[in-house]
Specification:
By secondary structure, the chain is mainly beta. It folds into two domains: about 250 residues, no CATH class; about 120 residues, no CATH class. It has two helices and 24 strands. Strands 2, 3, 4, 5, 8, 9, 12 and 13 form an eight-stranded mixed beta sheet that branches. It is rod-shaped, with a radius of gyration of 29 Å. The two termini are about 50 Å apart.
Length: about 400
């Protein structure tokens, strides 16, 4: 699916003025401007567990995570989505996707020579790794994503100009690109690197080069009874490279990082009828989703659940409550029963809840007037304001 609201932008800020609180600021939620610094929303923090993964390849650079308060799971401020970070893992130079490199940007760089080399015990220090929100889109939904700040420490003399190459693999590609593709999309110079030559010096200190990115997406594709996507997945293979100034690059180590976002409102309901009264009434079905009462042609209530997946502030159905108006013997009918509703959320189980709704059952004598004879079922508790009067 193509997300026309964004380009695949890079998040850049000076590594010497990095703010602990988060994302570089966007003048609007769609397009980043280079060098702006601000904060991302981290207001909902759940399970801030440090994520560390390691690859066993001999020529993969080693990495450390120094972020003391990472946000690895984030519920958006509107409560609509939950985003979880992927554990970071190291990549060896042999993992470099030469085929995607050659095919990106219409094959613009297919003539490049790509060399791979051992990392020479280079280090990657990851100072920030967070999931978060970047404000709201025009449709009112939160813009969500992940942020990373990582510094590649080259422990040998440079053999060329340092830069990064990042491949993006996502089920919501931008700009008509076919994953995995080079970042950014669209390209903003005639080179295959993450930073332009004008930008790179701001992130370079000695033999070290700092990488800053905040990937994000709008989330409208996640909602509805038949959503376009069950989740938004975004991950990247990031490599440190050295460039000879012509058409040759040498690839060293790198990391894989990313995130996945799902609907936080998606779920299902179940229900059962409990606490009927009075005890002298004739009834059956207590503890099930169908409740009958009275001798003769019993009256009946039945609940049929419906899956739900609404956007914020959207009215949605959790099920249907059907009432059959029977013809029962006087004095045998129930006058009340509770409907116990269980709401289970697929991706945010901590939001699961029970709601008890009291129902009043009025059993009227049958006469020649069908309206006057109609029984009445109404909610008397549970926060419902529905009124049901079958005719």
């Amino acid at each position: 699916m193509i997300d026309s609201n964004f380009n695949e932008h890079r998040g850049r800020t000076s590594p010497l003025s990095k703010q602990r609180s988060g994302f570089p600021r966007l003048k609007n939620p769609y397009f980043s401007r280079k060098g702006n610094v601000g904060s991302m929303s981290k207001s909902t923090v759940i399970a801030p567990t440090l994520l560390i993964g390691f690859m066993g390849a001999a020529n993969a650079a080693t990495f450390t995570i120094t972020d003391s308060n990472p946000v690895t799971r984030f519920i958006s401020p509107d409560g609509a989505t939950v985003t979880e970070l992927k554990p970071i893992s190291g990549l060896s130079s042999s993992s470099f996707n030469t085929s995607s490199f050659n095919n990106s940007y219409g094959g613009q760089f297919s003539g490049y020579t790509v060399n791979t080399t051992d990392s020479n015990d280079d280090q990657i220090a990851i100072s920030t790794y967070n999931a978060g929100s970047l404000g709201t889109a025009a449709n009112g939904l939160s813009v969500i994503g992940g942020q990373i700040i990582a510094t590649y420490q080259n422990n040998v003399l440079p053999i060329g100009t340092p830069n990064f190459v990042q491949f993006i693999d996502t089920n919501r590609p931008l700009g008509g690109a076919t994953p995995p593709y080079l970042d950014p999309v669209p390209n903003d110079d005639n080179l295959p690197f993450y930073y332009t030559e004008g930008e790179r010096p701001r992130f370079e200190l000695g033999n070290n080069l700092t990488f800053v990115d905040f990937s994000r997406r709008t989330t409208d594709a996640l909602f509805g009874t038949s959503p376009a996507l069950n989740s938004i997945t975004w991950e990247a293979d990031l490599f440190y490279v050295q460039w000879d100034g012509g058409t040759e690059i040498t690839v060293e180590g790198g990391i894989n990082w990313g995130w996945e976002t799902k609907s936080a409102t998606k779920g299902n309901s179940t229900a059962s009828f409990i606490n009927p009264g009075p005890s002298s009434a004739e009834f059956s079905g207590v503890g099930t989703s169908t409740f009958d009462w009275g001798l003769g042609q019993s009256s009946q209530l039945s609940f049929t659940p419906k899956p739900f997946n609404p956007k914020p502030n959207e009215v949605f159905a959790i099920g249907t409550l059907d009432f059959f108006n029977g013809s029962i013997a006087s004095g045998t009918g129930a006058s009340s029963v509770d409907l116990l509703l269980d709401l289970a959320f697929d991706n945010v189980t901590e939001n699961n809840r029970q709601i008890t709704a009291g129902l009043s059952l009025i059993n009227r004598p049958n006469t020649s007037d069908p309206f006057a004879s109609a029984d009445v079922v109404s909610f008397n508790s549970g926060g419902f304001n529905c009124f049901i009067k079958p005719i």
